[in-house]
Amino acid sequence: MFQKVLVANRGEIALRVIAACRELGVRTVVAHSQADRLGLPARFADETVCIGPAPSRHSYLNRPAILAAAEITGADAVHPGYGFLSERADLADGCAEAGVAFIGPPAEVLRLLGDKARAREAMGAAGLPLVPGTEAVPDADAAAGAAGDIGYPLLVKAIGGGGGRGMRLVERPDRLPDAFRAAVSEAEAAFGDPRVYLEKYLGGARHVEFQVLADGRGRTVHLGERECSVQRRQQKVIEEAPATGLAAGARARVGGLVTAAARAVGYVNAGTFEFLVDEDGRFYFMEVNPRVQVEHGVTETVTGVDIVKAQIRIAAGEPLAVEQDGVRLDGHAIECRINAEHPETFAPSPGAISTLVLPGGPGIRVETAAYAGDMVSPFYDSLLAKVIAHGRDRSEAVARMRRALGMMVVEGVDTNIPLHLRILDDPDYLAGRLTTTFLDRFLGTGAPAA
Amino acid sequence: MDIDRIGPVLERVLGLMREHDLGELELESEDLRIRALKAGAAGEPGAAVAAPASADGAPAGAAPAAAEPVATVVEAPVVGTFYRASAPDAAPFVEVGDRVGPGDVLCVIEAMKLMNDIKAEFAGEVVEVLAENGQAVEYGQPLFKMLPAADD
């Protein structure tokens, strides 16, 4: 096991990694920005290193500073959390050069999965069903030809990255040329890579993803699926495990495909395979997130497997303790992401938290680095806390979540708690009638989530 | 940046500064950068050199004589290992009492086997060395105290 892990992240995920290290008896160093000097990760880590000023690109995205911090503190591993540099092959390369373990997949796997077109091809070859689509399309004329085979509506998507940038929804053929050009220039600006491809647009689909753990010593397991359809502009708002309304046998069947695909590309450590599921229950592979997910806690809650500790153990060369046959799902878990934002306009709400009352009691888990007196910084994302409710079934989990959020108090900044409470009373939500356009319809904005 | 969006953001920034009695607040997003400085607050842009602040711990209210220069702290602009000389057997780049000009090397900070020369940004006299040779330093850590040259 490692002696000392450098945490190259901030907020609740930095604290989550510190918690896992403490349980494993591993010392921690937090590499933090000047803005996070007084944060809880800096308080609870064994050591701290300030790596740069508040803006992420000078601190949490500053690869040389993070590697230098690992070097001067003698850390023997780096945990990148999620976001920031977590999916960057060059961070994994830098760690390897510095003789420090990277707690994540091998650099070549990150390189493969970071190229959407290559990842799609590799996953198709490994047996995963793909959304009907193309390889890179050179120009608008070629796009028009390929579009005839796929059918409308379709998406023009950037090869170089995700998050909705470099993406256009096209409803009709006459809209394709403009949408194609717009996607190309946006992709070039956002990712430095103008290449785009076409994909069929699945309107009434759900977002379902499988959690995988692979130890690189021959054992690859999946921990079941998560339902993450409640999202706004590609940002998940509520996640659950397991997904409701999956056909009998779908978990074992798709889980088997996913573990086989993970083996085929040499996947090691924790990862998530994202799918769209259409109205007929057909699964279509979207992408792999080669890191710990924000929503890993719902899977931990129903399986009892500590995913972050498993990540650290795998990177330290230990075999996975859990076997596929030993993975059992206990009840139902729901996570609400509490963001510091206006519940209706979604405008970020930075500022000082004057009062913070966190819920507890049976079946409630809260992941947060916030405290009364803390500043919600305008420099970073607005995630304030994750509240996870566990029940013996979905309705008990919903009841616990309503109770918990109704007894949670955040003053000084706006939060989306009122929005969550409204969703938790919505008949479609309660019936599990979820698609990726659910939240837009719920909010009355009507625009497709693509 | 839509001009209509700047007003509320500015108000928020100013509100935060008042609320927390901040001398300076800098906000940066994809398409906007705002740096607000309270009137009279000492502030000097630049990552490598700290805002000129009284480093001698002068008692509150006892303003230094107008002509007297105030010592300035030079901070580490990068994380790494602090070295006062280019090699173990070489003489230090600077000693206390040395006068340096802008661009003169004060020390090196090694990070990832790269030697980063840390240079003086203004002419002045080194009055104190605040870090030990071979010590790990973090971003913003005080390295030297310098007295700016009077005629600058």
Folded structure, characterized:
The complex is a heterodimer of chains A (450) and B (152). Chain A has 450 residues and is of the alpha+beta class. Chain A contains 15 helices and 20 strands. In chain A, the strands form five sheets. Chain A has an eight-stranded antiparallel sheet with strand order 13-12-9-10-11-14-19-17, with helices on both faces. In chain A, strands 3-2-1-4-5 form a five-stranded parallel sheet. Chain B is mainly β. In chain B, the strands form three sheets. Chain B has a four-stranded antiparallel sheet, with no helix packed on it. The relative contact order of chain B is 0.17. At the A-B interface, strand 3, helix 3 and strand 15 of A face helix 1, strand 1 and strand 9 of B.
Coarse morphology of chain B: elongated
Question: Helix- and strand-based class of chain B?
Answer: mainly beta
> Spans of chain B of 5+ residues with little confidence (pLDDT < 50)?
41-65
**Share of helical residues of chain B:** 10-25%
Greatest interface and its participating residue counts: A-B, 26 and 22 residues
Note the beta-strand portion of chain B.
25-35%
The unreliable regions of chain A are 446-450
How many strand elements of chain A?
20
Q: In order across it, which strands form the biggest sheet of chain B? A: 3-10-8-5
Q: Mean of residue pLDDT of chain A? A: 94
Give me the strand/helix succession of chain B. HEEEEEEEEEE
Q: Which strand order do you get reading across the main beta sheet of chain A?
A: 13-12-9-10-11-14-19-17
Report Rg of chain A. Answer: 21 Å
The largest β sheet of chain A comes out as: 8 strands, antiparallel
Features of the shown structure:
heterodimer, A: 450 residues, alpha+beta, five-stranded parallel sheet, 20 strands, 33% helix, globular, B: 152 residues, mainly beta, four-stranded antiparallel sheet, elongated
